[in-house]
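FAQ: What does the model actually see?

It sees only this:
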Amino acid sequence: MIILDENLQDRLIREEIARWYPGQVISITKLRPQSSIKDEAIPALLRRTNEPTFVTINTNDFWNKIRASAAYCIIAIEIPKERSLEIPRLLREIFQLETFKTKAARMGKVIHWTPTRIEYYEENRRIIALLQE
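And it is asked to produce this:
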């Protein structure tokens, strides 16, 4: 399951991801409808679902701030909201990397994508950087 942050609500983003991703693609708001969801509540919501991958462009509040957990994966993509329609393509490129190719490989990681590199940490919070091609 891919769960999109509140700032990625454009229907086109969900539809584009659903074209190539075999699982569900939903908004974080589906996990707690009709309420405001604070960033610090997101890990608890993710733990209630089965191995979700949470995608956000809110890198300042997630990258190197949220504790990694084997129950989920968080992908923080560093692009401005105006470019959020690029998320499906970027996410697919991330999923094609050997390190993140399967759900099992992604679980327990907090991933940070920038135009020049991809880095991630696991529970030990040691940052590992991958150079993009």
